[in-house]
Amino acid sequence: MRTVSGSSDTVVIVGAGLGGLSAALHLAGAGRHVTVVEREAVPGGRCGLVQSHGYRFDTGPTVLTMPDLLAQSFAAVGEELSAWLTLLRLDPAYRARFADGTTIDVRAEVDDMADEIANTCGRKDADGYRRYVAFLRELYRIEMPHFIDRNLDSPVQMLGVPLARLVAMGGFGRLGRKVARYLDDERLQRLFSFQAMYAGLAPAQALAIYAVITYMDSVQGVYFPEGGMHAVPRAMAAAANAHGVTFRYRTTVAKVDVSSGRACGVITTDGERIPADVVVVNADLPTAYGELLPPGSAPRRLHRLRYSPSAVVLHAGSSAEYPDASHHTINFGAAWDSTFEEIISRGQVMSDPSFLLTTPTRTDPSLAPVGRQTHYVLFPAPNLTGNVDWVRRRGAYRDHMVATLEKRGYRGFGDGIETEYLVTPADWRAQGLAKGAPFAAAHTFTQTGPFRAPTLDRHIDNLVFCGSNTQPGVGVPMVLVSGRLAAERITGPRRQR
Question: Model's pTM, two decimal places?
Answer without folding.
Answer: 0.95
